[in-house]
Write a structure and sequence with these properties.
With 87 residues, this protein is mainly alpha-helical. It is built from three helices and no strands. Helices cover 84% and strands 0% of the residues.
């Protein structure tokens, strides 16, 4: 355990940020699964609606620094490609 005050604060801050990042990543995974579920069900309208929500959540996560911009771009691209392939 840390003895120095600043080190103790760093530990607390790191825990707080880790919890926040974990919650944001979890939200992105959830909305991604909803898109994939709509795709497997064959419901194009639901898939497109879920895709908009997923893109929004991924962009929010990127702006907060949870995901790198290229990672976010790749996730959006793969989801969009899957939805567009439903034709």
């Amino acid at each position: 355990m840390a003895n120095i005050k600043s080190a103790k604060k760093r530990i607390l801050v790191a825990e707080t940020r880790a919890a926040r990042n974990k919650a944001i990543r979890s939200k992105v995974k959830t909305v991604t699964k909803k898109v994939e579920a709509a795709i497997t069900a064959g419901d194009k309208a639901a898939a497109q609606a879920a895709l908009l929500v997923a893109i929004s959540e991924i962009d929010k996560a990127t702006s907060k620094g949870v995901y790198h911009k290229n990672t976010a771009s790749r996730k959006v691209s793969r989801l969009s490609k899957a939805v567009n392939a439903m034709a």
